[in-house]
Amino acid sequence: MIEVRNMVKSFGGFRAVDDASLTIETGSITGLIGPNGAGKSTLFNVIAGVHKPTSGQVLMDGEDITGLAPHQLFHKGLLRSFQIAHEFSTMTVRENLMMVPAAQTGETLWNAWFRRGQIAAEERALAEKADEVLDFLTISHLTHELAGNLSGGQKKLLELGRTMMVDAKIVFLDEVGAGVNRTLLRTIGEAIQRLNRERGYTFCLIEHDMDFIARLCDPVIVMASGSVLAQGKADEIMQNEAVIEAYLGTGLKNKVET
């Protein structure tokens, strides 16, 4: 689905992404790991249109999408979440979900005056879809809660819910487990797997929790110093000497050997 070819992103004289090439297959849950500063989030930002690449290409289903803006990619079904969730804190959880679909009738002043019936019908349909999403994510009890009152893990679930409001094709998740307790992380992992299995979502996720990665992801791609170092199944990656030396460290090496 996504092919990155010889991607370079420089900031001044520093190459945050350095000739990186990788493929994310349709229907996969692909893990992207590496030390802090490896270029993972920068690569996500280039793919998702947040940053323009210095050079290189991004293809989606064979189409060159290099340098397209986030809103253009949104309409193609490519979405990107961030390590820190971005919610409308003074709106309810349901209202946050209802805000997602683009080109809603009530967005123009003319329609707000003269198409009130159409707007009301559209809002009812959106509310119903939002309720279905909350049901799917097992957080219906939070429907009327202000989003700003949610825990970190609940906000990550809300971000997943947003992708369901537009039937995304591929979702890039940046450190979905950051600041999330183990119980909610398990719920998030199960939601990702169900979206992948039941609705055909493709995922690529950055995560430092190797247990979480091993449970969800196949394949796993390792970045170091802006480049792709290795790719394979999680257990292969954890046995790879180059990966251990460059990123995972002697702690994991000892764990693997014992």
Summarize the structure.
The chain is of the alpha/beta class and 258 residues long. Helices cover 42% and strands 22% of the residues.
What is the CATH architecture annotation of the largest domain? 3-Layer(aba) Sandwich
- The Rg value, from CA coordinates, equals 20 Å
Mean pLDDT: 86
Question: Which shape, going by the Cα principal axes?
Answer: globular
Q: How many H/I helical runs?
A: 10
CATH topology of the largest domain: Rossmann fold
CATH superfamily of the largest domain: P-loop containing nucleotide triphosphate hydrolases
Tell me the series of helices and strands, N- to C-terminal.
Answer: EEEHEEHEHHHHEHEHEEHH
What is the rounded distance between the termini?
38 Å
Low-confidence stretches: 250-258
Provide the CATH top-level class of the largest domain.
Alpha Beta
Question: Which band does the percent of strand residues land in?
Answer: 15-25%
GO molecular function, one term: ATP hydrolysis activity
Organism: Brevirhabdus pacifica
Keywords: ATP-binding, Nucleotide-binding, Transport
InterPro entries: AAA+_ATPase, ABC_AA/LPS_Transport, ABC_transporter-like_ATP-bd, ABC_transporter-like_CS, BCA_ABC_TP_C, P-loop_NTPase
